[in-house]
Amino acid sequence: MREFLFTEYIEKVTTSIQNIKVDLILDLTRSLRDAWSEDHQVFLCGNGGSAANAMHIANDFFYGIAKDTGKGIRVHALPANQSILTCLSNDISYKDIFSQQLAVLANSGDILIALSGSGNSPNIIKAIQKAKEMRVKTFAILGYSGGKCLELTDVAIHFPIDDMQIAEDCQLVVGHMVMRWLADNSI
Question: Which pTM was predicted?
Fold first, then answer.
């Protein structure tokens, strides 16, 4: 009986991946390559497992694509610095932990990639809003209904799956696809 859980999980992941909108991923990869060649920065944010995915993808963009060229993307995983996160959440509010970092670090022409299962996390929504104010192009990789982020972000890569783990799996699949494309199309 327990083996059914594995089979069901595999089927859900497979179905989600098979329904990827490749044109949206190509938009993300081309925008990242342009930002890379123009020396712009890329920011990633997310909460919980999506925060861990943001750090993983940042590593891939920083080093994974640079093995042959020695030059990766100038990338920042906004959930990575615990000192900044605890300071901002204590002194301002948790909903400002990403938008405040963008206010200090980002410039017009940079890119924000928001990772969210629900698309309704206040700190993710506020980060996208701040990025748009600053003329930072926004992408989001979303699960469930896509939430408020689905309409707010410039480009939404949406997996309409009501399962947080599969939504997070899809975030990494997109990240790895993009990393491989960038490594094959390096500047």
Answer: 0.96
Sign of CA dihedral 136, 79, 176, 6: negative
Task: Name the pairing type of β-strands 41-45 and 137-142.
Answer: unpaired
How many angstroms separate the Cα of 87 from the Cα of each of 78, 97, 126, 162?
A: 13, 9, 17, 33
The number of beta carbons lying within 10 Å of the beta carbon of residue 19 is 12
**What torsion do the CA atoms of 182, 146, 143, 130 make, to the nearest 10 degrees?**
50
Residues of the chain short of pLDDT 50, as ranges, are none
**Structural domains in the chain?**
3-184 (3.40.50.10490)
Residues 6+ apart with CB under 8 A from 81: none
Q: Give 79's DSSP letter.
A: T
